[in-house]
Design goal:
Blueprint (H helix, E strand, L loop, with lengths): L1 E8 L4 E7 L10 E6 L5 E10 L5 E3 L13 E2 L1 E4 L7 E7 L6 E6 L4 E5 L2 E7 L7 E6 L6 E8 L2 E8 L6 E5 L10 E8 L8 E7 L2 H4 L5
Antiparallel strand pairs: 1-2, 2-7, 3-4, 3-8, 4-5, 5-6, 8-9, 10-11, 11-12, 12-15, 13-14, 13-16, 16-17
Length: 215
């Protein structure tokens, strides 16, 4: 998991600092830390990473391990992101087993909550051409109505919540002849007693809007 340990402000963005923890992985091997970018590209962040007794990713400073500011120095991941933009990382062991662990975090969620329910949009491609909609807190298997609108183009679909009360959909919010804009996505229960449980998420279509996290 990624544990947030601080935030700082630069001229044009907010930086979020995380520490990385792993559970279920052996402590003996060294690991390579990778970032899986939203474009699908994979970038190496650091190699020869180790885990301390509590599972925290560190630079031990011993021969064959990465070096930090001192022995057993925690690895700090400094992240900036746009609203709804996920950051994904992987740890892969350097031994023959090549054990893998993955983690994802959205530093600035594009989410709304009401009456115990939550709806969130997560950018799936660099310009938001594909966006993932995650919902939770609905009744198991209850009927849901999805309404989406972009530039006056409307779409309505009836579906069901999953057995655990969650909801998932893929939004493709492009509109012919439009280079940017906003999509409004709402999900509500069909029954009259649940009608007031309404959730809306705005999904940006332009790179400028999707990646602007200035506050």
């Amino acid at each position: 998991m990624l544990k947030e340990v601080g935030r700082s402000r630069t001229t044009d963005r907010t930086l979020v600092k995380y520490e990385l923890y792993a559970t279920g992985l052996p402590k003996n091997p060294t690991y390579t830390l990778l970032e899986i970018k939203i474009s699908g590209q994979i970038a190496q962040v650091m190699n020869e990473v180790t885990l301390d007794a509590g599972g925290k990713a560190i630079c031990a400073g011993r021969p064959g391990t990465c070096r930090g500011n001192g022995p057993d120095d925690p690895i700090d991941l400094i992240i900036f992101a746009g609203k709804g933009e996920p950051k994904r990382f992987a740890l892969i062991s350097d031994d023959a087993a090549h054990l893998k662990a993955f983690v994802s975090v959205t530093p600035f969620p594009n989410a709304t909550a009401d009456k115990g329910c939550r709806l969130e949009s997560v950018i799936g491609t660099p310009k938001g051409e594909t966006t993932f909609i995650h919902g939770s807190g609905f009744e198991p298997n209850e009927d849901l109505t999805k309404n989406a609108e972009s530039y006056g183009e409307k779409n309505s679909v009836v579906s069901k919540a999953d057995a655990d009360g969650s909801y998932f959909a893929v939004a493709l919010p492009n509109v012919l002849g439009k280079a940017s804009g906003v999509t409004t996505w709402s999900v509500k229960a069909r029954t009259a007693t649940r009608y007031s449980r309404f959730h809306g998420v705005h999904t940006s279509l332009s790179r400028a809007q999707a990646f602007d996290n200035r506050r």
